[in-house]
Amino acid sequence: MKLLRHGPAGSEKPGLLDAGGRVRDLSAHVADIAGEVLTPEGLARLAALDPATLPLVEGTPQGNLRLGPCVGDVRKFIAIGLNYADHAAESGMPVPTEPIVFAKWTSCITGPDDEVRLPKGSTKTDWEVELGIVIGQPVSDVPVDAALGHVAGYCVVNDISEREWQLERGGTWDKGKGFDTFGPIGPWLVTTDEIPDPQALAIWLEVDGRRYQDGSTATMVFGVAELVAYCSRLMRLMPGDIITTGTPPGVGMGQDPKVFLKGGEVMRLGIEGLGVQTQKVVAQG
After folding, report:
1. Sign of dihedral through CA atoms 272, 245, 224, 188?
2. What single DSSP character describes residue 19?
């Protein structure tokens, strides 16, 4: 299934994408794509529905029908740093021997095609296309060989990063990662039955039509199962928590000369089987 949330920001309704690429409304069956709905039992109830019997939502998804963040009421937005060896190299940092874990504030989450607003005075805002893992049931200290059983599905994430605040202002990376609009997710959550191998997905990002990132999740340092297991040792993972898994090379910081977002650009990014995001960058006075 491809689960989504549609409608105006702050008033999204739950839905799914049918085989014809149209949005079907799930409001009569669930309140949101969140929490218990993402457990194996909740997903099984949705899978048993016939999409043709669900109300058709007017409009074209990602056209004249806005899609919101594909998961609602996210409690934890966990991020992994330097998880592609070639991205670590372009960043001038060593390949980590254990996952680098930091937080993106849940208030940064936006829809897949919403505007990205640069923080006032920003000079080093950068892009990062990433595979997002959506947790499907509570788990603590799960072994690697059982970790994928706790995943509800996957989504596209743009881990937008203000590099000056991340790297030059002291303290932890979190400072540069959680500004408002810095966490587009979606367009939809794709359940695990549609993604049999999350380590075999093409992943890419373009700015104004130029492809900067063009990689594969096969080159992750730590794979999805390892990351779920590792994070579950640090905290109790809950349904709807998101782990965003690091980015392949090609970020603006890695260019020669460096390229950062100034406002007016259009980012377009996607992952095989998970859809595409498009965001206009807006500078603030």
Report:
1. negative
2. T
Among 70, 49, 47, residue whose Cα is nearest residue 240: 70
Please return the burial class of 251, using the count of CB atoms within 10 Å of its CB with bins 0-12, 13-18 and 19+: buried
The band of 93, judged by pLDDT with boundaries at 50, 70 and 90, is confident
What does pLDDT average to over the chain?
A: 97
127 burial level (CB within 10 Å; 0-12, 13-18, 19+) = buried
- Amino acid of residue 252: G
pLDDT band at 92 (very low <50, low <70, confident <90, very high): confident
CA proximity to 222, closest of 108, 136, 98: 98
Tokens of 256: 């020669």
144-169 pLDDT, tens digit per residue, is 999 999 999 999 999 999 999 999 99
Distances (CA, A) of 232 to 47, 132, 170, 180, 242: 27, 16, 28, 27, 12
Instruction: Determine contact, residues 25/55, Cβ cutoff 8 Å.
Output: yes
Q: How far is CA 182 from the centre of its chain?
A: 11
CA nearest 262: which of 250, 270, 252, 249?
Answer: 252
Q: How many helices (H) and strands (E) does the chain have?
A: 5, 18
| Burial class of residue 51 (count of CB atoms within 10 Å of its CB; 0-12, 13-18, 19+) | middle
| pTM, two decimal places | 0.97
Question: How far apart are the two ends of the chain, measured CA to CA in Å?
Answer: 42
For residues 77 and 259, give the distance between their C-alpha atoms in angstroms, rounded to a whole number: 26
**Triad 109, 75, 279: Cα angle to 5°:** 10
pLDDT tens by residue, 220-244: 999 999 999 999 999 999 999 999 9
